[in-house]
């Protein structure tokens, strides 16, 4: 079975992911068939870029997205466009709509450092005072 899933790249504490097409049995960072996108969760908002034409092809031949990739599809509304493609809407208009979405989506090349939750910050403050 072929899956659409994430492959981790990037250094320690700076994760960056490629969206790949791989066999279900292949290791997470192992052999893959094709790179169809990328995802950077450290930017605010997360940078998501897909090659939608290739994803439509792979979904059409039976590739199943992983749970995490399914969530990314929902963020950029790829699922909705694919359903419209299956109902007979023109692929060119859907790809143009997707390109417009990716252009207008807020992009920040700077990575952000995630803030510690309030409980951890308060515990650290109490520890420093003691």
Précis, in short:
The chain is of the alpha+beta class and 130 residues long. The protein has helices at 52-60, 67-75, 78-86, 91-104, 118-129, and strands at 2-9, 16-23, 34-40, 47-50, 64-65.
Query: What is the domain tally?
Result: 1
What is the helix fraction of residues, given as a range?
A: 40-55%
Main sheet strand line-up: 4-3-2-1-5
Mean pLDDT: 83
**Number of helical segments?**
5
Low-confidence stretches: none
Class derived from helix and strand content: alpha+beta
Write the CATH architecture name: 2-Layer Sandwich
End-to-end CA span: 56 Å
Question: How are the SSEs ordered, and which strands pair?
Answer:
Blueprint: E1 2-9, E2 16-23, E3 34-40, E4 47-50, H1 52-60, E5 64-65, H2 67-75, H3 78-86, H4 91-104, H5 118-129
How is this structure best described in words?
This protein is α+β, with helices and mostly antiparallel strands and 130 residues long. The termini are far apart. It has a five-stranded mixed sheet with strand order 4-3-2-1-5. It has a single domain (2-129), classed as Ribosomal protein S16 (S16 Ribosomal Protein, Chain: A, 2-Layer Sandwich). The protein is globular and about 65 Å long. Helix content is 41%, strand content 22%. Strand 3 and strand 4 (47-50) form a beta hairpin.
Brief descriptors of the model:
single chain, 130 residues, S16 Ribosomal Protein, Chain: A, five-stranded mixed sheet, 5 strands
């Amino acid at each position: 079975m072929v899956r659409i899933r994430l492959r981790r790249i990037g250094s320690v504490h700076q994760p960056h992911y490629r969206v790949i097409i791989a066999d279900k049995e292949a290791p997470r960072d192992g052999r893959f068939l094709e790179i169809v996108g990328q995802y950077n969760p450290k930017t605010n908002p997360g940078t998501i870029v897909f090659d939608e034409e290739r994803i439509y092809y792979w979904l059409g031949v039976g590739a199943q997205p992983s749970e995490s990739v399914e969530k990314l599809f929902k963020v950029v509304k790829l699922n909705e466009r694919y359903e419209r493609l299956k109902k007979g809407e023109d692929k060119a208009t859907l790809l143009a709509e997707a390109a417009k979405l990716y252009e207008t989506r807020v992009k920040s090349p700077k990575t952000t450092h995630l803030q510690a939750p309030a409980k951890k910050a308060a515990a650290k403050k109490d520890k420093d005072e003691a």
